[in-house]
Amino acid sequence: MTRHLETRTIADFGEQWTEYPDAAGFFGSAALFNDFFNPLVCDRDVTGCRVADIGAGIGRFVNVFGEAGAAHIIAVEPSEAFRVLKGNTTRFRDRITYLNTTGDGLPAAGDLDYVFMIGVLHHIPNPDPVVAAASGALRGGGKLAIWLYGREGNELYLTVARSLWWLTRRVPHRSLEHIVRIIYPLFWCYMTACRWLPLPLAEYMRKVMLRLTPTKRRVVIYDQLNPAFAKYYTREEAHGVLARHGFVDIRLHHRHGISWTVVGSKP
Description:
By secondary structure, the protein is an alpha/beta fold.
């Protein structure tokens, strides 16, 4: 069952990112990367470094690393979006190694300064082999930086989302697109109300969603409804993902009160 979920989730993202390949604007910006990882890491920390991006998707953060002056980038993407990734990152291809494999296939070279997993581990039923591969790829003192869906702060959202997943995870792509278009006007009303009212998710709406174009907001909604598997981590679980693989100096940040940014160092 675990392998089936992993295979289906990879296929889901392959379809999603080949249909929505554009990474322009805030969606693929250093500002959004820093929103994910500040105050623990910022884009300029990778200047001159060797880094890997596991689950690189359409390459939006690979380009951020390239623009920040990373010395070399390993872009790992297992899905059909691999060809989109290569097409979107041609500016930096002389500094990129592309790997069309799952995260546990990251070579254990022991020479990387950073490994990033941005919105990836919460879609992997068994994340341990991927975290182990990241550890093997890092040098001593190198850092693993991950961003995960959080359980704390998402209680109301999960109540609503679970009522939709039974349908949205089963319908074909075009049907899901129609569902997203039906949902979007309601989402827009809620997002707009968050400008003035202290509603659940209000900080995230103001600082992230309102900065995206309508098209990218619909992509985010699609992203929430499509994948076959998604786990929402508690703080303890998020810490444990790194701790049980021997990472030290583990720091956590509760991003916008709804998700976890976690950074740890390899001894």
